[in-house]
């Protein structure tokens, strides 16, 4: 029997995030699922429940400005990629520690959720990290014709939407929830460079732990993921000079799937892939 608990997560600046804890009766260790850009915790519910069935207490949450953590107004939100890592992910781990004390804590990052780990003030308390679709997303390493689509999204659509609406209407182009403008701004800046967050490290972002983290990491991506391709995954790994990293490339055909892409690892229809996560967590207890 899995207990599902609605959780309020208080951040350092007093902002309250909406979370949900999937709590098994017998807990082997604990997991925090850090979401992709603009993706709500509901998207990960089936996956989180599956982890809990295997004995892992699992916390999902909405970043500030997103879903049930949207706040009063998206246009006045102080949400940014930097604050998602520094404030929100830090608070989520502290909440998990409070709810499930005396446990080991693992991070499962989807896209941005794995990219931002070095901004967490308590990232050294993570035992291991399993990422899916986490990469630098750099335009430099994307392939045509996707490169043209990405260039338009980053350099025309996001700035224009921010100018007209005060935030990014990402939902209009199938890119998840509307994004607070500073999320869009950093996303544009970082994906136009190399190493994603590395663009601002030690300049705009002076405090971080990217150089100090040394835990085991598995970087899973799909062959048909045009964002997190192999070169972009490697580009993101280079931001962490001391982590122990392994890249696993999934071929949809090998599993009998038509596609996996950037999102479908977490789909119930791709549940067969979830055993990769369980295997990793059990090996890194």
Structural commentary:
The strands form two sheets. The protein has an eight-stranded mixed sheet with strand order 1-2-4-3-5-6-9-10, sandwiched between helices. A two-stranded antiparallel ribbon has the order 7-8. It is globular and about 50 Å long. Helix 4 (146-165) packs antiparallel against helix 5. It has a single domain, classed as Alpha/Beta hydrolase fold, catalytic domain (Rossmann fold). The protein contains seven helices and ten strands. 48% of the residues are buried. With 285 residues, the protein is of the alpha/beta class. The protein has helices at 45-53, 81-99, 112-115, 146-165, 181-191, 230-237, 275-283, and strands at residues 3-10, 16-23, 29-34, 56-61, 105-110, 128-132, 167-168, 179-180, 216-222, 244-250.
CATH fold annotation: Rossmann fold
What is the quaternary state of this protein? single chain
Radius of gyration, Cα only, in angstroms?
18 Å
Strand order of the largest sheet: 1-2-4-3-5-6-9-10
What overall geometry do the principal axes of the alpha carbons give? globular
Structural class, by secondary structure, is: alpha/beta
**What proportion of the residues form beta strands (DSSP E)?**
15-25%
Offer a concise description of the structure.
Helix content is 28%, strand content 20%.
Question: Would you spell out the secondary-structure blueprint of this structure?
Answer:
Elements: E1 3-10, E2 16-23, E3 29-34, H1 45-53, E4 56-61, H2 81-99, E5 105-110, H3 112-115, E6 128-132, H4 146-165, E7 167-168, E8 179-180, H5 181-191, E9 216-222, H6 230-237, E10 244-250, H7 275-283
Parallel strand pairs: 3-4, 3-5, 5-6, 6-9, 9-10
Antiparallel strand pairs: 1-2, 2-4, 7-8
């Amino acid at each position: 029997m899995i207990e599902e608990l609605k959780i309020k997560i208080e951040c350092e600046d007093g902002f309250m995030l909406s979370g949900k804890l999937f709590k098994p009766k017998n807990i082997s260790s604990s997991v925090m699922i850090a979401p992709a850009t603009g993706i709500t915790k509901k998207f990960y519910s089936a996956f989180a429940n599956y982890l809990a069935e295997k004995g892992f207490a699992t916390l999902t949450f909405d970043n500030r400005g997103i879903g049930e953590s949207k706040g009063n107004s998206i246009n006045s939100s102080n949400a940014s990629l930097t604050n998602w890592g520094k404030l929100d992910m830090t608070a989520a781990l502290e909440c998990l520690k409070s709810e499930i004390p005396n446990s080991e804590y693992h991070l499962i990052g989807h896209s941005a959720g794995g990219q931002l780990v070095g901004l967490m003030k308590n990232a050294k308390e993570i035992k291991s990290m399993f990422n899916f679709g986490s990469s630098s997303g750099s335009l430099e390493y994307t392939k045509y014709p996707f490169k043209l689509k990405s260039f338009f999204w980053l350099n025309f659509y996001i700035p224009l939407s921010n100018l007209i609406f005060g935030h990014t209407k990402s939902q209009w182009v199938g890119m998840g929830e509307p994004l607070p403008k500073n999320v869009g701004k950093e996303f544009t800046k970082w994906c136009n460079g190399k190493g994603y967050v590395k663009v601002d490290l030690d300049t705009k972002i002076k405090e971080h732990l990217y150089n100090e983290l040394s835990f085991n990491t598995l970087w899973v991506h799909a062959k048909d993921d045009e964002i997190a391709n192999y070169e972009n995954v490697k580009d993101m790994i280079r931001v962490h000079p001391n982590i122990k990293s392994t890249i696993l490339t999934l071929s949809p055909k090998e599993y009998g799937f038509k596609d996996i892409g950037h999102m479908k690892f977490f789909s119930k229809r791709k549940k067969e892939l979830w055993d990769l996560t369980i295997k990793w967590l059990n090996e890194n207890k």
